[in-house]
């Protein structure tokens, strides 16, 4: 399979930090599915999606297309999927017993958090007809909760070129890359907001204390959804902020990150 991720500074295996590709990478490795990563610079993403015939899967608040990755191309079934949740569903349906088994075991994954999102942020919408609706709703809620805090990370994304930075600036309607930098008291307040949000999420992980996952020792796609954000945080939060976040709430998310390491190989 061909897997498309957003290019960061070489070596990409150590710098890749895009959250939705990380969700899919974790799912591919969970399923033990062989794949090869193609790295795409931010300015090239719209062309790559068009060339593959894959429409945008998200919209900006103004209704325009948000062209992003991941993409998975499976030549064995002639399938092309351009959304992280759809990729997980595809892997489960096409390879139901491979790897560590079911990505979507039945469970209740309730999480409620009502954040204020940046005006430029492309929002996920709930899929009324989605397969695995419990997981789909959870994905939407987690996306919103972490996106509300993405300003802590965006400035430190190790993009591969100035052209990629300029493309990100245009996406956000900003004037320059420096506009993404948050320091001083505003950063302290945002970090505290992140800590509080993660405290609410940690309650879900405290229901079964036998392991680092929501279901204890058994990982599911819900853990991978959160894991995608943790991998972004680990590679973009500056200084000791990631180590601090790992330790919050009894080390819940440090343990989750460590538990997902076996699915984190970049291929």
TrEMBL record:
Residues 177-263 form the Glutathione S-transferase UstS-like C-terminal domain. InterPro entries: Glutathione-S-Trfase_C_sf, Glutathione_S-Trfase_N, GST_UstS-like_C, Thioredoxin-like_sf. Residues 20-93 form the GST N-terminal domain. This is Uncharacterized protein. It comes from Xylaria flabelliformis. SUPFAM superfamilies: GST C-terminal domain-like, Thioredoxin-like. Gene3D superfamilies: 1.20.1050.10, Glutaredoxin.
């Amino acid at each position: 399979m061909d897997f498309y991720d957003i290019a960061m500074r070489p070596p990409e295996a150590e710098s890749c930090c895009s959250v939705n590709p990380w969700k899919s990478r974790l799912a591919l490795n969970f399923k033990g599915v062989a794949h090869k990563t193609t790295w795409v610079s931010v300015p090239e993403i719209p062309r790559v999606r068009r060339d593959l015939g894959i429409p945008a899967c998200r919209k900006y608040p103004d209704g325009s297309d948000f062209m992003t990755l991941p993409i998975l191309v499976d030549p064995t079934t002639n399938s092309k999927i351009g959304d992280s949740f759809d990729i997980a569903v595809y892997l489960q349906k096409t390879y139901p017993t491979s790897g560590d088994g079911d990505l979507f075991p039945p469970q209740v994954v309730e999480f409620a958090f009502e954040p204020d999102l940046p005006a430029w942020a492309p929002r996920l919408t709930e899929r009324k007809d989605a397969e695995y609706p419990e997981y789909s709703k959870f994905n939407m809620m987690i996306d919103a909760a972490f996106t509300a805090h993405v300003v802590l990370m965006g400035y430190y994304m190790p993009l591969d070129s100035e052209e990629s930075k300029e493309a990100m600036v245009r996406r956000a309607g900003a004037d320059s890359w420096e506009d993404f930098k948050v320091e001083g008291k505003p950063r302290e307040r945002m970090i505290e907001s992140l800590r509080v949000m993660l405290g609410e999420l940690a309650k879900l992980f405290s229901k079964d204390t036998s392991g680092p996952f929501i279901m204890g020792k058994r990982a599911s796609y819900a853990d991978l959804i959160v894991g995608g954000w943790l991998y972004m945080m680990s590679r973009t939060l500056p200084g000791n902020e990631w180590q601090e976040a790992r330790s919050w709430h009894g080390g819940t998310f440090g343990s989750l990150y460590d538990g997902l390491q076996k699915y984190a190989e970049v291929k």
